[in-house]
Specification:
Helices cover 58% and strands 12% of the residues. By secondary structure, the chain is of the alpha/beta class. The chain has four domains: 125 residues, Rossmann fold (3-Layer(aba) Sandwich); 122 residues, Reverse transcriptase/Diguanylate cyclase domain (Alpha-Beta Plaits); 89 residues, no CATH class; 109 residues, Arc Repressor Mutant, subunit A (Orthogonal Bundle). α2 runs parallel beside α3, α14 runs antiparallel to α17 and α16 packs antiparallel against α17.
Length: 513
């Protein structure tokens, strides 16, 4: 919404201009009208306006002096002068100072006022677009320099970093992880997760006047936010909530406050360490770094050796409840003596130490992929229970892997334009999601989601050539719920946009293969 200030010593002119235009329809508002330049200047000093419509000849302070001082306060302000025929020299001076245009009092017509106002809006939009482009380029340059600084572990900052004023003071380092990334990848594919991270990055730049955001890995961002006012944590929390509200994206964030350009690398490590607390406290949190030093300086091997796992193994070998063994492990892991990766490493090594527990590598991968301690305990419990089950061949085990996947492919072919997921396909052939995923890749050479995307892209190609339906309707009919994602994944797979594909092939009789 653009704000307009109208200034004229004649009430009939002020009220006339105000009444001529449907300001709300034009996405503008007239929040103020003043009868002289001094009153208007006071309003400009205490508020922000986009457009100033001012009479030239007024008592106390004329329009030209008002314009001069107003532009000093707000250089981007767009000024429209209102004059009479005798004010031409003043008009000329005003145009030299940067007025967009002028209106004659004797010929004020709604369409003329509206045309000038729309031109002001157009200029403002273009200037802001150019400014955003310049700011975006500066931020991307800073982002690349910070990446080099972290990767190369340099102690001295580059020119771009050194010249960034807010990095010389206090700032917040935040490490952001997408929650449930594996599930997103399974259901939508790796490109979709990458697009989601880009959306989060763009939202950061849209919300934050200063700061930078960079992709840390395939499902993580590293953010830097100025914190001279001590409000960066509040801004970070609002950005996080905005992402959740806009896209339903849950993120876990770790942050630490640092000072000066020499602390960026330290801030990266510290914020990432803080984000690891999501493993112990659950997903979706905002965690401040609380450094815990090990006064004994023990290694992971030392820490393992210090713990007596005999009760754990006795429970498993005696046939006692699995939950009791898992409780022993949880008591150990909740103590905080190990970090998340060390906990998962220890969970895997426990299995390897027990000769009777012959786990396949994919089962160990499930343990390593746990995002929280609660998930790890759940996976561990399920696997221990499965190991205890006697071997009783069932119908699925009698059917070869090829026959199972052929059945699944028939199901996928009949339902790929619907809300089909890895879980629903696995349920159809009565397999666990993880085992079905492995078997599908083994039999087809493709991940489930990649195969599904390929089918949907083929259907989209057919629809694009067959009719003139809107791109959004084509996306939905092919099984893509998000038209923006459809357009991006289509271009990534096919090499051109859906519209370009339609223009290239429609009416040529091309066969879609």
């Amino acid at each position: 919404m653009y704000r307009v200030l109208i200034v004229d010593d004649e009430p009939v002119i002020r009220h006339g201009i105000s009444a001529y235009i449907d300001w709300e329809k034009e996405q503008m508002s007239v929040d103020y009208d003043c009868e002289n330049g001094e009153e208007a200047l006071n309003a400009l000093e205490n508020g922000s306006f986009d457009i100033l419509i001012t009479d030239i000849k007024m008592p106390v302070m004329d329009g030209i002096e008002l314009m001069r001082q107003a532009l000093e306060l707000h250089p981007s302000l767009k000024v429209v002068l209102v004059s009479s025929y005798s004010d031409f020299e003043y008009v000329r001076e005003g145009l030299k100072l940067g007025a967009v245009d002028y209106l004659l009092k004797s010929a004020l017509e709604p369409e003329d006022i509206l045309a000038v106002i729309r031109r002001c809006i157009s200029i403002l939009q273009e200037e802001r677009s150019n400014l955003r482009t310049i700011m975006y380029q500066k931020r991307k340059m800073l982002e690349q320099e910070i990446k080099r600084l972290i990767v190369q572990e340099q102690l001295s900052a580059s020119t771009a970093v050194s010249n960034t004023t807010w990095l010389k003071s206090f700032y917040l380092c935040a490490y952001v992880m997408l929650d449930g990334a594996k599930e997103w990848q399974e259901n939508h594919g790796y490109p979709y997760v990458h697009f989601m991270m880009e959306e989060l990055q763009e939202l950061f730049y849209a919300k934050m006047e200063e700061g930078t955001a960079m992709l840390a890995d395939e499902n993580s961002l590293f953010l830097l936010l100025p914190d001279q006012d001590g409000e960066a944590e509040h801004r970070l929390r609002n950005w996080k909530l905005s992402a959740q509200s806009k896209w339903g994206i849950s993120t876990s964030v770790g942050f630490v406050r640092e000072l000066g350009t020499g602390s960026i690398t330290k801030g990266f490590s510290g914020s990432r360490l803080a984000c690891q607390r999501r493993f112990f406290y659950g997903l979706g949190g905002l965690h401040k770094l609380e450094e815990k030093k090990d006064p004994e300086g023990k290694t992971i091997a030392d820490k393992k050796a210090d713990y007596d796992w005999t009760p754990y193994f006795n429970i498993l070998r005696n046939g006692d409840p699995v939950s009791s063994a898992v409780d022993i492990a949880l008591e150990r892991w909740k103590s905080g003596v190990l970090n998340p990766e060390q906990v998962k490493q220890e969970a895997c090594s426990l299995h390897l130490q027990e000769e009777s527990l012959l786990l396949q590598s994919d089962q160990l991968d499930i343990l390593r992929g746990a995002e929280t301690l609660e998930q790890l305990a759940s996976h561990l419990t399920v696997q221990l229970l499965e190991i205890r089950k006697p071997f009783i061949p069932n119908m699925t085990e009698r059917i070869s892997g090829r026959e199972i996947i052929e059945k699944a492919l028939e199901y996928i072919a009949a339902n790929y334009t619907e809300n089909l997921t890895l879980q629903s396909a696995a349920d159809y052939v009565h397999l666990s999601k993880n085992y079905f995923s492995l078997l599908f890749k083994r039999q087809t050479g493709l991940n489930f989601i990649d195969y599904l995307i390929e089918l949907r892209i083929r259907e989209a190609k057919r629809l694009l050539v067959q009719n003139d339906a809107r791109i959004g309707d084509v996306a939905k009919a092919a099984g893509f719920n998000d038209v923006k994602y459809f357009s991006r994944i289509f271009k990534k797979v096919v090499g051109i946009t859906p519209m370009e594909y339609r223009e290239k092939h429609q009416g040529t009789g091309s066969q879609i293969v």
